From TrEMBL:
It holds the Pfam family Exo70_C. One of its GO terms (cellular component) is exocyst. SUPFAM superfamilies: Cullin repeat-like. Belongs to the EXO70 family. PANTHER family: EXOCYST COMPLEX COMPONENT 7, EXOCYST COMPLEX PROTEIN EXO70. Residues 301-674 form the Exocyst complex subunit Exo70 C-terminal domain. Keywords: Coiled coil, Exocytosis, Protein transport, Transport. Component of the exocyst complex involved in the docking of exocytic vesicles with fusion sites on the plasma membrane. This is Exocyst complex component 7. Signal peptide: none annotated. GO terms for biological process: exocytosis; protein transport. The keyword Coiled coil applies. Residues 4-31 form a coiled coil.
Length: 681
């Protein structure tokens, strides 16, 4: 017998399996029901599609049959008419009609062939005789604007006269009889290619010959108004030395390396000690790169002018060949390739400047200045030349100008901030207290703005949107005058801001010096250099537009630092005062304490004099006028006090060895002071 417990377990197992089988069966049943529903749905869709297809077929077939019948009827009618015409018309007439039809067909074939030949001749003449304008001729044409006393009569002849007349006749016939405008596309394609080649040829010629005087033709060269008494037009190359120095400073600010080739001001010594000079090899390599960049800038400026001149000449030629109502559109297409290439080159200049600014090379803005100034000067002629072209064409130059003004303003503002936040405070400080290269580079940068005041002002004004709106609300003449005045004020404020940032930075840098006297010499040298630079370069007049007391402020700062320096001599002259000297009568015997007081005063004076002269002899005051004035003032104070002290002690016997304490005469003291700030002594 099976135990009761085993029977129960077996029963439960069977019940569990039964339950699982029931669940499986239920799942299969549900799946079958869903499958049936899907099948019914698909059958319904197919039935509906079949019904609609049959309806469409029933509708199309009758139409097709009807159309076929109509075509057959049409053919029958044509055949019937042809038979009737053959029966009615006499034989002679039929022959003549067939002859006329053949003549018309032949004439039409000849017309089409002639038109094709004329189109080919139009293309052939235009292609064969269209040549790039020689670079020398282009330079003569654009050079006559500014560089000549008497403008040269430069004619840009694109096609020989006889060829031009043939092309004009062909274009007129094609337009009137050929009713074909394809020749206009041929025209703008050929002339567009020659325009672009002319500008590229000018650029290549400029690169090869810009270092020589062979830019213009001999006939025009004699009319150039450069004379020994007249300065030639300022070329971008004149700012390259300044740009090099600023680039060196910007690199120094990033990697902590020092390097500047500071050009001293008039009245300053030939060397500014503490400022490192470049080696000849490095300078030569840099000069070579600068020459290449100068050529690129000059080349671009000349190409902009050349485009305007050539475009004007092309439009004059176009008006003789292309119908009036197609002239603007054809001209627009003709100039696109050359214009796009120039604008692309301008965008590349802006991109290069933007990358340089990201590297904190703010001198890149100096490259934009001459280009931007020329673009703005050329814009009126540019707008006149492109009048009537598409808005997208006319807006290309203004967009480039706006882009350059924006990147220029960014560089100016970031340069001002870099002067304020220059991180180099300890590692690049001149040990002799001479002019810091931050000062020289900042002033050098500002001096370049004098040659581009209107351009720099416009850069700053481009950020003042509300002011610009105010300008446009005025009349054209007053708005122009006001904008120029406002730009000048903005530039004046900007320069004052840079000077303020520079002064703040110098004050912070001076704290590195532990000796208050050297700190005063450092600040004096820098403030004096700033003032002399402002006066020499006429920056002072520009700053005075908005800040009239700037000159007086710097003179006060200079005098204040001189006084701070002179305090260092108090520890020498204080030994010469009457303080602690006892009152006595001539011939009176002094006590030991009284004799010691006098000895200490001599010793304190001698030691202090020797120490200060030894230390300050290695300091620098580059400005000779200031150096002599400081020496003279110090000699006067020290020698007068020393002479008075010697006179008081002349009849006093305070030691058996007076030469031990009375080491220097008043004249010798003055000679020692004369050697201050002079390492050669």
């Amino acid at each position: 017998m099976i135990p009761t417990e085993d029977a129960s377990a077996r029963k439960r197992e069977i019940e569990d399996k039964l339950k699982q089988e029931q669940e499986t069966l239920s799942f299969i049943r549900e799946s079958l029901e869903k499958s049936d529903q899907l099948t019914k749905g698909m059958v319904s869709i197919l039935s509906s599609f079949e019904s609609r297809l049959m309806q469409l077929e029933n509708s199309i077939i009758p139409v097709h049959k009807q159309t076929e019948n109509l075509q057959r009827l049409q053919e029958n009618v044509d055949q019937t008419l042809s038979c009737l015409d053959h029966v009615i018309t006499p034989p002679e007439t039929r022959v003549q009609r067939q002859s006329d039809i053949s003549a018309v067909l032949l004439q039409k074939a000849r017309f089409e062939r002639g038109k094709e030949l004329l189109e080919a001749e139009f293309r052939s003449l235009l292609t064969r005789y269209s040549k790039p304008v020689p670079p020398i001729l282009i330079l003569d044409a654009i050079g006559g604007d500014e560089d000549m006393e008497v403008q040269a009569d430069v004619t840009l002849e694109h096609l020989p006269e006889a060829v031009l007349q043939d092309i004009i006749c062909i274009s007129a016939w094609l337009l009137e009889y050929g009713r074909n405008q394809d020749f206009m596309n041929v025209y703008f394609q050929v002339r567009s290619s020659q325009l672009d080649r002319s500008i590229k040829g000018l650029k290549e010629h400029f690169r090869k010959n810009s270092a020589t005087s062979a830019l213009h033709s001999p006939a025009v060269q004699t009319k150039l108004k450069y004379t020994p008494t007249k300065k030639p037009p300022k070329r971008p190359g004149t700012i390259r030395k300044a740009q090099n120095l600023l680039k060196q400073y910007s690199q120094h600010g990033l990697d902590g390396k020092k390097g500047s080739n500071l050009t001293p001001l008039e009245g300053f010594d030939h060397d500014l000690r503490g400022v490192k000079h470049l080696s000849d090899d490095k300078h030569g390599a840099a000069a070579g790169k600068d020459d290449v960049l100068d050529i690129e800038i000059d080349s671009y400026i000349h190409c902009i002018s050349a485009f305007v001149k050539l475009a004007q000449s092309e439009y004059a030629l176009l008006t003789e060949i292309i119908p009036e109502h197609h002239q603007k559109k054809t001209f627009d297409s003709l100039i696109q390739e050359a214009l796009d290439n120039l604008m692309l080159e301008g965008d590349n200049i802006v991109s290069a400047a933007r990358r340089a600014i990201m590297r904190h090379d703010y001198s890149a803005v100096l490259t934009i200045f001459p280009i931007l100034r020329h673009l703005k000067q050329t814009k009126p002629d540019f707008d006149t030349t492109l009048q009537g072209t598409a808005a997208s064409t006319k807006n290309k130059l203004p967009a480039l100008i706006t882009s350059m003004e924006s990147i220029g303003a960014k560089a100016l503002e970031e340069f001002a901030d870099s002067i304020k936040n220059d991180p180099d405070k300890e590692y690049n400080m001149p040990k002799d207290g001479t002019v810091h290269e931050l000062t020289s580079n900042a002033i050098l940068f500002l001096q370049q703005l004098l040659d581009f005041q209107e351009t720099a002002g416009a850069m700053l004004a481009s950020q003042a949107v509300e002011t610009c709106l105010l300008w446009f609300s005025e009349s054209s003449s007053s708005a122009s005058s006001y904008s120029s005045e406002f730009s000048r004020k903005l530039l004046s404020t900007y320069i004052y801001k840079v000077l303020g940032n520079l002064q703040l930075n110098l004050s912070n840098k001076a704290k590195v010096y532990e000796d208050p006297a050297l700190r005063a010499v450092f600040l004096h040298n820098n403030y004096n250099y700033i003032l002399k630079s402002l006066e020499k370069s006429e920056l002072i007049q520009l700053v005075a537009v908005t800040h009239k007391k700037v000159e007086g402020s710097y003179r006060e700062l200079i005098e204040q630092e001189i006084q701070n320096y002179q305090r260092s001599w108090l520890r020498v002259t204080e030994h010469l005062t009457e303080r602690n000297i006892p009152a006595f009568q001539p011939g009176t015997k002094l006590k030991d304490k009284e004799r010691q007081i006098i000895k200490d005063k001599f010793k304190g004076f001698n030691d202090g004099l020797e120490e200060l002269c030894k230390i300050q002899q290695g300091w620098a005051v580059p400005d000779k006028e200031q150096r002599d004035a400081i020496r003279q003032a110090q000699k006067r104070v020290v020698s007068e006090a020393y002479r008075a002290f010697l006179q008081r002690c002349a009849n006093i016997s305070f030691t058996k060895n007076p030469e031990k304490y009375h080491r220097y005469s008043a004249e010798q003291v003055e000679e020692m002071i004369d050697k201050l700030f002079d390492t050669s002594a």
